[in-house]
Design brief:
The chain is mostly helical and 478 residues long. The chain is built from 24 helices and five strands. A hairpin with a 4-residue loop joins strand 2 and strand 3. The protein is elongated and about 95 Å long.
């Protein structure tokens, strides 16, 4: 069946993919026990009853030393008790202790700590909502948002070329689009994040990747993602023959991270539907939503909606939603969705090709042709009777996604069963009665890579009707 070509540029999408979230109790547990959140909560509680702070709202140095010792906020590389004592005594600024400074700043930002008037203390929100699951998740979502903003600021300083795309945010959005459990390569995430910007050269991608890696490792402290480093076996992979440089870092969005990135998307005004809600939407809403998803998101959406009903019910609901002649985009997506269960609908689809209005009959014919199950004689009959309308639908629908997408589909011989038969179908475009026939022919004439097919489409573009003859009126005698 039709290929699911789709632009990789997130700017062309209107919706994030469908996801399912973990139960709230699991999310709350993971959020509260994520390293950065746990440190922020512990520092907020530790600040009671009051803690002297500097004008920058950081704890005074003596109190900072006490907090580090009480809460075990040592640098991870210092494990010896004697070394820790020496390090603590040599501390001259709170900024030299990031395991204290960063979660403290986060706690102040999230209003867990009230640091006004030179004293820090647990905020009223912390005292009243510490055991509330909703408040924990609110704090954690705020923590992730703050951490992403801070990371984008750092990246802007280190790699100014990556400032425009807000690369950290776009990488997280890219992770959200991958299927659950996927671990895409960091270099691919960076390339996608920079796509569409003015700086996509190899040097910028390399610098952005090197700067992004430690930031993502820090973001993993929120529990939102995991960064998998090449293991020892990757450093000496003689059997594969690949150099070490080809063993890329892999990044995975955790279930908690999926909750957090969805929160970020919604805050930016991007629809981020849930699987449980989507299964019950109408056929019209289902089909109209599909162009807004990424390729992976579209597959999930189709599987979610189709699995919630029997194939016969899906066909019965889709039919009325696509019968208006001008709904080419709906029909193409309907054909792709029905193709996933086409083998269970062959008899019903054949009936529609004989009895339904032309638009619905063409959609049914499209599914039948793509199924590869028709005997040669029936295949030719369906192609002759429904192929032209269905082909106009395909060209018109693809053109709505942009000239680049249309050129991509036309250049791919396997993109769709209809593209393989355009030379046979083009002469029937106008006779099919499809309202977009002339526009589809012009699009093929302009963009089909095969000159013979393009010329055929050009010759079939209907000429505008001649202007009717009118008797010339004589003016009044002068």
């Amino acid at each position: 069946m039709p290929s699911h070509h789709t632009s990789s540029d997130p700017q062309h999408r209107t919706s994030a993919r469908l996801v399912a979230l973990q139960p709230e109790e699991l999310l709350v547990f993971e959020a509260a026990h994520s390293p950065l959140m746990a440190d922020a909560l512990n520092l907020a509680l530790w600040s009671a009853p009051t803690t002297p702070v500097t004008p920058e709202s950081m704890p005074e140095l003596a109190m900072a030393r006490e907090a580090i010792d009480d809460l075990g906020l040592w640098p991870r590389e210092i494990t010896c008790e004697e070394s820790r004592t020496l390090w603590l005594q040599s501390l001259r600024s709170v900024s030299e202790a990031p395991r204290l400074a960063i979660p403290w700043r986060a706690a102040v930002h999230l209003n867990m700590i009230d640091a006004s008037a030179g004293q820090a203390r647990p905020s009223r929100e912390l005292e009243e909502g510490f055991d509330e699951p909703g408040q924990i998740m609110h704090w954690w979502a705020g923590l992730l948002s703050w951490a992403v903003d801070e990371s984008d600021k750092v990246l802007t300083t280190v790699v100014p070329e990556a400032a425009g795309p807000r690369l950290v945010s776009r990488v997280l959005h890219g992770l959200y689009e991958t299927l659950d459990g996927s671990r895409p390569r960091l270099e691919d995430l960076v390339a996608d994040g920079l796509a569409g910007s003015a700086h996509t050269d190899a040097l910028t991608r390399q610098r952005a990747q090197e700067a992004l890696l430690p930031l993502l490792q820090w973001l993993s402290e929120t529990g939102a993602l995991e960064v998998h480093l090449p293991g020892p076996e990757a450093l000496d992979d003689r059997e594969s023959g690949r150099p070490c440089s080809e063993h890329a870092h892999l990044v995975r969005l955790t279930p908690l991270g999926r909750f957090g990135v969805r929160h970020l998307l919604l805050a930016e005004g991007v629809p981020a539907p849930l699987i449980d809600d989507y299964a019950d939407v109408s056929a019209e809403a289902f089909l109209d939503s599909l162009p807004g998803f990424s390729q992976e998101g579209r597959l999930v959406a189709v599987d979610t909606w189709m699995s919630a009903r029997t194939p016969a019910e899906a066909l019965r609901q889709i039919g009325p939603a696509v019968e208006s002649p001008g709904l080419a985009l709906r029909r193409v997506h309907a054909a792709r969705a029905l193709d996933t269960v086409g083998s269970e609908l062959l008899a019903r689809l054949r009936m529609l090709t004989r009895t339904a209005p032309d638009p619905v009959a063409a959609m049914a014919g499209h599914v039948l042709l793509a199924s590869g199950t028709l005997p040669a004689e029936q295949h030719e009959k369906v192609l002759r009777e429904q192929g032209a309308w269905a082909a106009v639908d395909l060209v018109a629908a693809t053109a709505l996604e942009g000239e680049a997408e249309l050129a991509c589909v036309l250049a791919d011989p396997g993109a769709d069963v209809l593209t393989l038969n355009l030379s046979f179908l083009i002469p029937g475009f106008v006779a099919s009665g499809h309202p977009a026939a002339a526009a589809a022919l012009q699009a093929l004439a302009d963009h089909h890579p095969d000159r013979t097919t393009a010329d055929l489409a050009h010759r079939c573009v209907p000429l505008p009707p001649p202007r009717p003859w009118q008797r010339r009126r004589r003016g009044p005698a002068q």
